[in-house]
Design a protein that fits this description.
Number of helices of chain A: 5
Helix content of chain A: 55-70%
Largest interface: A-B, 87 and 116 residues
Largest sheet of chain A: none
Strand content of chain B: under 5%
Distance between the termini of chain B: 83 Å
Strand order of the largest sheet of chain B: 1-2
Oligomer: heterodimer
CATH topology of one domain in chain A: Helix Hairpins
Structural class of chain A: mainly alpha
Helix content of chain B: over 70%
Distance between the termini of chain A: 65 Å
Strand content of chain A: under 5%
């Protein structure tokens, strides 16, 4: 079983890194998600693989698995979500600022002009009024 | 040395008043300029008043030392010291500071409300005071750097002027750079002496001078002193710093900033002086600066520039005197510090008045002012005469002592005979530029085309000048009475030895020094008389413009830095990640080949067919996502499989909490990705070159193999848990049987508080990024189909509505049981988030928005407040932050229930998680909604 988990973690990290090296934001987000799985599993595995011994104290249980990695990974999963959410919004913002989903935002070279362009866009409410 | 502990506390107290007072002018500013000035003067006066009680014991020959441990492991301590030298400088800094504050009130224009100016001035003054009152040398360097920074602010005070900014930057670069050298020197000094306390360093003087590092220490310390004191060839920042307002020049270039350099020479004199290296380097640099400054002063057409070069020259004189290293030369040097501070401050102030009244500082136009402002003219003439060394004035006395020392000096193997010649030339030049200042400005015909009609300044603007000029006369005529004990005490602190017998008097008989004075006076006037020829000759010399040289160097350095930066940092995320991965591979490979091995004896868990199926699913999902990432929607579906397998892995290996969390996060993440995909392009172009793909595969394969290898090595190695305490104490100590939850909300509650704070920050960051964001969603999907007309299928809507109360009930259940069974705030928060988001998905955002809050950031704050607030409650029971309490409660209908205070903490966690999920997903959804309505 240990070998299988090692293969799984290796594969997840490998594909995660490959996707993070792509040039577009969406594959990078996917890659980051895969890498988070790998890291969470790895951290979790540092408590070793134990079957049928959840760390819930009861009179019937004879032994428990290590609770510390679980506590660490639990918050890591939630924070991982926060990070993914942030990167996703960053990608969307990048798309709106540069018009491209390339990670380097190549159209941002002349960023002062595009800032100005954004500032001069009429707000959404005005557009609505004009149309109606 | 005697320490009076109760009295010595006045030293840190005085510094606290001074630094604390920095804010006072800013607070007084709204009450008018006068209030700001009075506040500044009051801070300075109070600081001085706090030090005065210590003066009597210092004059009695004692050194007051105050020592507080700060970072003892690094030798950085709050060590303060007041000896004769510190006392002399404190009086100069604070006394002249008060006069400068009064002067500045009238000098600066009425529209300047003065708060900012005086705050800078007080900051600078406090740092300067810190330098002279430091016992710990590292502390002194800290204050030293603060003077560099605050003088930058003062010189650049007229920040709208290009000149001021350049001058300030130059002063900062030169003196700040010197400060770094000084820091290095002081660290070496401390290493050699074994302590950074000045008393210990002085005691170790012989050890330091014998150490092979001594030349390095000396060079570094002298670099610090010479840059600050504007010694040749670092002098160029000082004339440029004349771009500062005149009160700043009067302060920085008479009693403070530049005197910090000579103060350092005096302070470390007992430690570093006496060697040939000291005598030669210090006195030669001093002598060059003395003559160069005096020579250049003669050719300035700007009278403030003349005073600037004269300052350089006088600092050279003081440096030279410390370099000669005889007891009498040191006494002369300290005496000249006093005299120069007095006459130069008054001269700068007088120059400021003239500038203020005439609107120009050009001596070719400012002429004949004696008739227009006779009182100011008289004052300035007396001060200038003192600068030239005319008898009966204080400048004469120390210059006479210098001439005597120049004659008596016997070092340098015969070259010492040059010294009296050098001294006389410098004396002649000093008389010549002083004569030029007096004659050109106050006589020499009529004013030429002045912007303003000059007249006497306001009464109180002249008072500081009058006080200082009076001091010139008093010290000049009754030296022993006026400054005798102060000088003896300061010189004693520098020499750290009994003083030789000397007489502070005007008439020492008709000796060689007096002859030199006469030659200087006569020669100076003579040179001034033939100035036209000299000026013509001077203009034929190649000009040594250090300022443009500095600017050129500065620009060159900036350009080169930018070039290197562009080469290293090309802004490509792909390159950074690739470099990072490559580094990780190399570093881990190196660690593997040099490190030890893990002992391998873990029996392991036998594998079964279910695990094999799960692994197959995970491989399918992972490889599928990677290969098909160009087809983005498909990739999202495939990555969902991976998440499910990961959750199942947690289930299998005894981690029910993780499984619940992972599963709910999975749902939220997929919704998030789908929402994002709506705006992002539906597919990625195939644009990577073959070489790029090959590079990435190699990196990815390396990392993957490494991770697999490390995981396998870790899993099969022997294992000792550190969780025993938590397992034992969970029920009796934390009142819960779910150990993971008890760890999160109780044992490691502080970590969790930090983690939910991070989560809240990520949510707020996303909120800021989405604010005002405008995107145009594509009209068609990846394969060119139009989006479905019916946005919210009726069937889904109807199915979801009854699900909501069920889902919320489940969330409440999961939340409440979390302390004892799998669940808790994190999971319950995610389940609630998913339940509410599903309603938006099924019923449309407008449906959900009518029933849910529109703005989530306050809920993040509320959650954090709950979690931190319950932690604070434990303070009221005199317990550390986040101490928990639990007990059994009898509740009607429900019976006996065990409750722990951490449930409030968990409620905070719950709120933050719900708010984060809803904030991000509804705001992303609203983007779409806004578009639909537009």
């Amino acid at each position: 079983m240990e070998a299988m988990l090692a293969i799984a973690i290796g594969l997840l990290s490998s594909c995660g890194v490959y996707l993070m090296l792509r040039a577009r934001t969406f594959p990078v987000i996917l890659g980051l998600t895969l890498l988070s799985y790998a890291v969470n599993l790895f951290l979790f595995a540092s408590g070793r693989l134990v079957v049928n011994a959840p760390p819930i104290i009861s009179s019937e249980a004879s032994h428990y698995t290590d609770p510390i990695p679980q506590a660490l990974v639990l918050t890591a999963i939630v924070i991982g979500f926060g990070m993914t959410a942030y990167i996703v919004t960053l990608a969307l913002r990048g798309l709106s600022e540069s018009g491209s989903d390339h990670v380097d935002m190549p159209e941002m070279a002349d960023d002062i002009n595009s800032e100005a362009a954004i500032a001069h866009q009429p707000p959404a409410t005005n557009q609505k009024e004009q149309q109606s | 040395m005697i320490e009076h502990l109760s009295q010595a506390l006045l030293l840190p107290l005085a510094l606290m008043v001074a630094f604390g007072g920095v804010a006072l002018p800013l607070m007084a500013e709204p009450y008018g300029r006068k209030a700001a000035t009075i506040a500044t003067g009051a801070v300075m006066a109070l600081t001085l008043a706090l030090l005065i009680p210590l003066f009597s014991s210092v004059i009695g020959g004692q050194t007051v030392v105050m020592h507080l441990d700060w970072l003892p492991a690094y030798g950085i301590n709050l060590g303060f010291r007041l000896d004769g030298l510190g006392m002399l400088f404190s009086i100069l800094i604070l006394g002249i500071g008060i006069l400068v504050a009064l002067y500045a009130h009238y000098y600066l224009p009425d529209y300047d409300k003065l708060g900012r100016f005086f705050a800078f001035l007080l900051l600078f003054m406090s740092a300067m005071l810190g330098i002279v009152l430091s016992e710990n040398l590292l502390l002194m360097v800290v204050f030293w750097e603060i003077t560099s920074l605050s003088s930058f602010l003062l010189i650049a005070y007229k920040s709208e002027a290009y000149e001021s900014r350049i001058a300030a930057r130059m002063a900062l670069a030169v003196t700040g750079g010197g400060g770094l050298a000084l820091l290095a020197g002081v660290i070496l000094l401390g290493q050699v002496a074994g302590s950074y306390e000045l008393s210990a360093v002085i005691a170790a003087a012989d050890l330091i001078k014998a150490d092979p590092l001594y030349p390095v220490i000396l060079t570094l310390v002298l670099l610090g002193a010479f840059t600050k004191s504007a010694q040749f060839p670092f002098h160029f920042w000082l004339p440029n710093a004349m771009a500062a307002p005149t009160p700043v020049s009067a302060y920085l270039h008479s009693a403070t900033m530049v005197k910090a350099g000579v103060f350092l020479l005096a302070r470390l004199y007992p430690v570093l002086s006496g060697t040939d290296a000291w005598v030669i380097s210090v006195s030669v640099i001093g002598a060059i600066t003395l003559v160069y400054g005096a020579y250049m002063a003669m050719y300035r057409d700007d009278f403030k520039g003349l005073l600037a070069y004269s300052t350089i020259s006088h600092l050279g004189l003081i440096t030279l005197l410390f370099g000669l290293s005889t007891p009498m030369s040191v006494i002369a040097g300290v005496f000249h510090i006093i005299n120069h501070a007095i006459f130069k401050a008054s001269l700068f102030m007088a120059a400021g008045i003239i500038d203020h009244e005439c609107g120009t500082r050009d001596m070719r136009r400012v002429n004949g002012l004696f008739k227009l402002m006779p009182i100011t003219a008289t004052l300035a003439m007396v001060a200038a005469a003192s600068m030239a060394g005319v008898p009966l004035l204080n400048g004469f006395l120390s210059k006479e002592m210098f001439f005597t020392e120049a004659v008596l000096f016997t070092g340098f193997d015969g070259a010492h005979l040059l010294l009296p010649v050098f001294a006389t030339i410098a004396g002649i030049l000093a008389v010549a530029y002083s004569a030029r200042f007096i004659h050109d400005v106050f006589f020499n015909g009529e004013p030429v085309d002045l912007p303003r009609q000059p007249h006497e300044p306001p009464r109180w603007m002249r008072v500081p000048v009058e006080i200082l000029v009076l001091l010139c006369l008093v010290v000049g005529m009754f030296p022993a009475w006026a400054v005798g004990s102060l000088l003896a005490s300061a010189a004693g602190a520098v020499l750290q030895a009994p003083l030789p017998a000397y007489d502070l008097k005007i008439w020492h008989g008709f000796n060689l020094a007096f002859v030199m004075s006469l030659i200087a006076l006569a020669g100076g006037v003579g040179i001034y008389a033939m100035r036209r020829h000299l000026i013509e000759w001077h203009h034929k010399l190649p000009s040594l413009n250090s300022r443009t040289g500095f600017e050129r160097l500065h620009r060159y350095l900036v350009e080169q830095s930018e070039r290197i930066l562009r080469a290293l940092d090309n802004g490509s995320l792909q390159r950074y990640i690739a470099l990072l991965c490559a580094f990780v591979l190399v570093y881990a490979g190196w660690a593997y080949s040099t490190g030890g091995r893990l002992p391998q004896h873990n029996p392991g868990v036998p594998f079964d067919i279910a695990a094999l199926i799960a692994l197959a699913g995970l491989m399918l999902g992972t490889i599928g996502t990677t290969l098909l990432h160009h087809r983005r929607l498909l990739a999202v579906v495939l990555i969902g499989i991976v998440g499910l397998v990961v959750s199942l892995t947690f289930v299998r290996f005894s981690a029910p909490d993780l499984a619940l969390t992972q599963l709910s996060v999975e749902v939220v993440t997929i919704v998030l990705m789908l929402l994002a995909l709506y705006y992002l392009p539906q597919s990625s172009p195939k644009e990577s070159s073959r070489a790029r793909i090959a590079r990435d595969i190699i990196l990815a394969a390396g990392i993957g193999l490494g991770m697999a290898f490390i995981t396998y090595a870790m899993l099969t190695s022997s294992f000792n848990t550190i969780s025993g305490y938590y397992l034992e104490q969970s029920v009796p100590g934390g009142g819960g049987s779910n150990v993971v939850n008890v760890i999160l909300v109780d044992f490691r509650g502080f970590d969790t508080l930090g983690e939910i704070a991070v989560l809240a920050m990520a949510a707020l960051g996303a909120h800021a990024l989405l604010d005002q964001l405008r995107l145009t969603p594509p009209a068609k999907d990846a394969v060119g189909r139009l989006w479905a007309e019916e946005a919210h299928p009726l069937f889904l809507k109807m199915l979801m509505r009854p699900l909501l109360p069920l889902a919320l009930a489940v969330a409440v259940y999961i939340f409440l049981r979390g302390h004892n069974l799998p669940g808790g705030g994190f999971v319950a928060g995610l389940v609630t988030g998913v339940a509410l988001i599903l309603q938006s998905l099924a019923g449309g955002l407008s449906f959900a928005e009518q029933r849910l809050p529109k703005y989530y950031p306050p809920f993040l704050g509320l959650g954090l407040a709950f979690a931190a607030g319950i932690g604070l409650v434990s303070w009221f029971f005199a317990r550390p932050f986040l101490t928990s309490a639990h007990g059994h409660f009898e509740i009607p209908l429900l019976g006996d229930i065990e409750l722990a205070s951490v449930i409030i903490f968990d409620l905070g966690v719950y709120l933050v998680v719900v708010a984060t999920v809803l904030l991000i997903l509804t705001e992303l959804g609203r983007l779409h909604y806004r578009k639909e309505n537009a």
